[in-house]
């Protein structure tokens, strides 16, 4: 851990903000390398950084470039990463591998949380976290993002479990592991592309400052771990749940038929949904990430 700092390149603007206690929002990069196609991925990443600045916070996109753990990318670095072929998808299991081997990689929610905590960043915005996949009772496919939320003290702002996941099982695993799920201004857990799901909100808060206060209280009690904030996609951008369900089962059937497994499942389903919905799922995905970035900046300012 003492040496971790030597492996990181903290962008000077980010380092200064952290030191001064000004609001900083971490951003992941698997969404850039594996979650969206070029050039939409870079356009989204640039826009999200701009939104965080608009809200008075400093964005810190986290990624691994040639074996260096980057906390905050220059525009040039971001653009190159967005076009890198063969970038790894890095989680807790393989983050150190990429650093040891000098590789390039996008950091998942889990790896981004680890890096953010090392750097001293409390809040992180993304689109969707990984969770318990549908059919996990046979595949055992549960994202490493869930145990990470239980051990690393970072607030993750998402749009709720993606409807490609089993939302109820995802909430159960979070509860078992002592991870608070806070629905923002909603009595139900939002389902990524849709504002509604049948799942009641485990906890609800309506003010960004209240979320910061809750996290600070958990820290004070030394409870460990982070929390998941579920922020519903804006109404004008949502795809209603019943409409989305048909597209998802089609994508899932294709994944099973093609025997897609392991790390490839999430990127495959996202790419296939983009095709099936004729780009609509991507437009919604971009809108919800922007919405989450805005809320994350407000939470970061609430400390
Ligand atoms: N959800 C998205 N886009 C993404 C991901 C999730 O809408 O790009 C990425 C995130 O980086 C998340 C990872 O941490 O997928 C989860 O992958 P897995 O299910 O393999 O753990
Ligand atoms: Mn998985």
Automatic annotation (TrEMBL):
- Could you name the domain of life of the organism this protein comes from? Bacteria
Sequence positions that bind substrate: 89, 109, 143-145
Query: Known catalysed reaction(s)?
Result: D-ribose 5-phosphate + uracil = psi-UMP + H2O
Gene Ontology BP, a term: nucleobase catabolic process
Give one GO term, molecular function aspect: metal ion binding
What residues make up the catalytic site?
28, 162
**Under the cellular component aspect of Gene Ontology, which terms does the record hold?**
cytoplasm
Q: What is its EC number?
A: 4.2.1.70
Question: Pfam families annotated for this entry?
Answer: Indigoidine_A
InterPro entries on file: Indigdn_synthA-like, PsuG
Q: What class of enzyme is it?
A: lyase
Name the positions where Mn(2+) binds: 141
Give the co-factor note: Binds 1 Mn(2+) ion per subunit.
Q: Which cofactor does it need?
A: Mn(2+)
What keywords would UniProt list here? Glycosidase, Hydrolase, Lyase, Manganese, Metal-binding
Record-linked Gene3D superfamilies: Indigoidine synthase domain
UniProt family annotation: Belongs to the pseudouridine-5'-phosphate glycosidase family.
Per the entry, what this protein does is: Catalyzes the reversible cleavage of pseudouridine 5'-phosphate (PsiMP) to ribose 5-phosphate and uracil. Functions biologically in the cleavage direction, as part of a pseudouridine degradation pathway.
Task: Give the multimer and partner information.
Answer: Homotrimer.
Name this protein carries in UniProt: Pseudouridine-5'-phosphate glycosidase
Source organism per UniProt: Nitratireductor basaltis
Q: What is the lineage of its organism?
A: Bacteria, Pseudomonadati, Pseudomonadota, Alphaproteobacteria, Hyphomicrobiales
